[in-house]
Amino acid sequence: MAYDYIDETGIIIADTSEIKEEVAQEYKDTFGDDLVTDNGSPASVLITAETTSRKNLQETAALFANQINPDLAGGIFLDAIGSLTNFQRRQATSTTVTATITGVVGTVIPEGSVATTTNEDRFISTQEVTIPAGNTIDVPFQSEEKGNIPCLSGTLINIADGGVLGWETITNNDNGVVGLVTQNDPEARVDRKLTLANGAKALPFAITSGLYLLDDVKSLKFRENFEDITKVIDGVTMVRNSIYVCVDGGTNTEIANALYAYKTLGASYNNGASADPQEVTIITPDTEQDYTVKFDRPDIINIKIKITVKAEASATDQTQNIKDSILAYANSNIRTEGFKVGNDVSPTEIASNVAYSTSYFVSDCQVTKQSIDVFQRETIDIELWEKAQTSLSLIEVVLV
After folding, report:
1. Most buried residue, 114, 156, 265, 280, by most Cβ within 10 Å?
2. Which of 31-45, 101-115, 363-377 shows the lowest mean pLDDT across its residues?
């Protein structure tokens, strides 16, 4: 059977429906039409083995052929496609934290010294310090393992590997900045699309690409007023020739620098649609002018969810599984999915994700804003300057 690698749909799927018949016919052509190929016969065993081999080969070929499609590629193939547009998937990072150590004045704490948390996670100091008069000094540490390593306030308290003579105690007064895990393929495919215009300037897509290049930016909404008058666009009052951005995540300074670097020369900024407007002043090195960059942080809209599910008896905690599934959807690391800035809350989407991830039958799903507390089966509209969120305590599960 000839295998066609070209498919007008863009997705290459191996058609294995006729392989067994073809193999059986080949055996009969070789050994005669009276060859017994009934199930259980020696010939049927050989035919089945050959069919399986050819089927696996075609499926492998289809998988490999699909790696030229950026919407289907994965692993090193996706990384190679991303490199064509200067995209790199986010790599894992360490959790960082500042710890206060005490000890004998003059004691040298070398870089690479180790402390552990109450969870036995190891943290490594990133610079050499000498304990000064006063017997205390703040030292930066980072987790030995990369990824989502927690370090809550007051948990980095153990000196490990014998420590250093003269080093007496350690603690962290603030929570650490939790590290990131390596971006998976679905997340990387979406981010590649969101940052395709990172090499351009001024265009709306270029501005949003520049913002999405910031790892800590979770989601955003962008609008442009390209007319020479003040206008209200999707509920946002925008002065003439200006842009508006509401951003969730990232630092104010990072966002301000990205907006200044990517926006149209001379365009104005807007904020104030949300209750958390931001203004950041930056000084450009070329002209030494002060620029005040304006943008919004999203207002948080708490969402209550009531979901009715039919699930077979199980030893697992079904209620917890359902709640975890909803939270995983709502807090998705994919920047376009779940509860993101300006994304409406759809009970149908919530129900579909629960059904897919748990294989339970969802018979009903209703949602409401906590401030209203009247459940509905219709989608809740979320404004450009708002972001929905939910929590375990706001999810009600009814098992039937």
Report:
1. 156
2. 31-45
Residue 1 has pLDDT above 60, yes or no: no
Q: What is the pLDDT of residue 222?
A: 97
The candidate with the shortest Cα–Cα distance to 103, out of 10, 165, 21, is 165
Residue from 336, 272, 301, 312 nearest 399 by CA: 312
pTM of the model: 0.78
Whether the Cβ atoms of residue 157 and residue 170 lie closer than 8 Å to each other: yes
Domain ranges (residues) in the chain: 19-69, 94-171, 195-297, 300-399
As a whole number, mean pLDDT of residues 343-368 equals 96
pLDDT bucket at 286, cuts 50 / 70 / 90: confident
- pLDDT (mean) for 255-264: 92
Can you give the three-state secondary structure of the chain, one letter per residue? CCCCCCCCCCCCCCCCCCHHHHHHHHHHHHHCCCCCCCCCCHHHHHHHHHHHHHHHHHHHHHHHHHHHCCCCCCHHHHHHHHHCCCCCCCCCCEEEEEEEEEECCCCEECCCCEEEECCCCEEEECCCEECCCCCEEEEEEEEEEECCCCCCCCCEEEECCCCCCCEEEEECCCCCECCCCCCCHHHHHHHHHHCCCCCCCCCHHHHHHHHHCCCCEEEEEEEEECCCCCEEECCEEECCCEEEEEEEECCHHHHHHHHHHHCCCCCEEECCCCCEEEEEEEECCCCCCEEEEEEEECEEEEEEEEEEEECCCCCCCHHHHHHHHHHHHHCCCCCCCCCCECCCECHHHHHHHHHHHHCCEEEEEEEEECCCCCCECCCECCCCCEEEECCHHHEEEEEC
- What's the one-letter identity of residue 306? K
Q: Are 270 and 236 in contact (CB under 8 A)?
A: yes
Place of tokens 């919530």: 350
Answer whether residue 369 shows pLDDT above 90.
yes
- What's the whole-number mean pLDDT along residues 50-74? 89
- In contact, 308 and 363? CB cutoff 8 Å: yes
Tokens of 330: 């709502």
Q: What is the mean pLDDT of the chain?
A: 92
Per-residue pLDDT at 316? 82
